[in-house]
Amino acid sequence: MKKTFAASIIALALGTGAAFAESHAMTDNPMVGGAPMFADKNIVENAVNSADHTTLVAAVQAAGLVETLQSEGPFTVFAPVNAAFDALPAGTVETLLQPENKDMLTKILTAHVVAGDWSAADIVSAVRASSDGFYHFNAVSGDALSAQLSPSGNVYIYDESGNAALVTIADVNQSNGVIHVIDGVLLPK
């Protein structure tokens, strides 16, 4: 009962809706891309099962980051859905997946990763405690990310250029961290 209530409160606080609360309460972890996510599996083991993250998984493989994201961590990953990659200019993903662009692809992907295990509640608390309404993260890439709450309670993650991505599914717990699904690609400057 307590976990169901807590999941519902977090879902309402983040504005992610009843579907999030229901899936989170039933499995202790939300469904992502039509697949159950298991807290005892690592980031890569879960991501490969999400139909919404096939582009991200292909990019992680092309960048040679599979072993890193399977390591102990903990990591917080802001995971863009396929539609986020599709929204980039035509040919961008195909160009980034070419071997000669591995360094740029790695920089972009690691701009979505923060060291540590940042739950949605941790992020919301940090934003609320900040003096400017933003909580500032350092991504593994060295780039700056910021989190902000909208007036309706949604969490947005911003890259250095000011591009915003909405957290659509929060707190997908992993054995080596947590994934927050986002609707945009965060780009380094």
From TrEMBL:
<dbReference type="InterPro" id="IPR000782">
    <property type="entry name" value="FAS1_domain"/>
</dbReference>
<dbReference type="InterPro" id="IPR050904">
    <property type="entry name" value="Adhesion/Biosynth-related"/>
</dbReference>
<protein>
    <submittedName>
        <fullName>Fasciclin</fullName>
    </submittedName>
</protein>
<dbReference type="Pfam" id="PF02469">
    <property type="entry name" value="Fasciclin"/>
</dbReference>
<feature type="domain" description="FAS1">
    <location>
        <begin position="40"/>
        <end position="186"/>
    </location>
</feature>
<feature type="signal peptide">
    <location>
        <begin position="1"/>
        <end position="21"/>
    </location>
</feature>
<dbReference type="InterPro" id="IPR036378">
    <property type="entry name" value="FAS1_dom_sf"/>
</dbReference>
<keyword id="KW-0732">Signal</keyword>
<dbReference type="GO" id="GO:0005615">
    <property type="term" value="C:extracellular space"/>
</dbReference>
